[in-house]
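Convert to structure. Protein one:
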Amino acid sequence: MVNCEDNFYSPTDGKLDYTGVVYKIAEFIKSGNDFVHQVVVGTDSKPSNSDKGVDFITAVVVHRVNKGGIYFWRRVNKTKNFALTERIGEETVLSLELATKLRDTFRHNGLSAYEPEIHADVGENGATRDMIKWVTGMIIGSGFKAKIKPDSYGASTIADKHT
């Protein structure tokens, strides 16, 4: 579960808590009021190098369409070893938790127009192709838009950069 004390990191602003992330998102969107913005949440994972479970990286991306963007990420280590299906399921749950918290926060901060979409680290090619319906069903069933590879840059590019 995401709480206000969770540590997030930004390439621009360094270490922030959840409240700081929301503040920076609001500031960024308001500074470019004339532009279209998309808020994206995506998670990627990698077994830990030290054999201590799996590192999950969840990224929040605010894309100012055709004008760049900003992002924040956090790391959660789960000491259990996961099979691929379990890892993809956990990635999806972590993305859903953060997207739900952002959506609820945005509704109280004048940002309700910026509904997060979730980028899943699954695609038509490779070992995750049989999981697409399951993962997108979880996301859509929770009230969010779902993107998969090659369009899921929040998970497959931004979060992946920090795994």
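Protein two, convert as well:
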Amino acid sequence: MNIEEFREYCLQFIDVEECFPFDEKTLVFKVKGKMFALTNLYDPDFKIILKCEAEYSLELRENYSEIQPGYHMNKKYWNTVFMNGNLTDDFIKNLIKLSYTEVFKKIIKKR
């Protein structure tokens, strides 16, 4: 998956917006104003940061070298996914969908 495919996939979910709240290089995807995915547009090593349940985050990190604690994020819930490894597009899409779902269900719960 390249950066454009990542962007297109993130934008297909309901109520998603893309923005640059931190600087001109950090692309952030939000659902209802809450982040669920981000990436640095200018990093030569394409990677994305996604949210996940705490236990599953640990499991992913133990089983995949391409998945590490989220850079500059709460490492209990956020993972950095290196896109130049052996992870399939379908697996990455599932992680993105999981991140979106985790954030969205917390928004719904607060209502």
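The chain has three helices and six strands. The radius of gyration is 13 Å.
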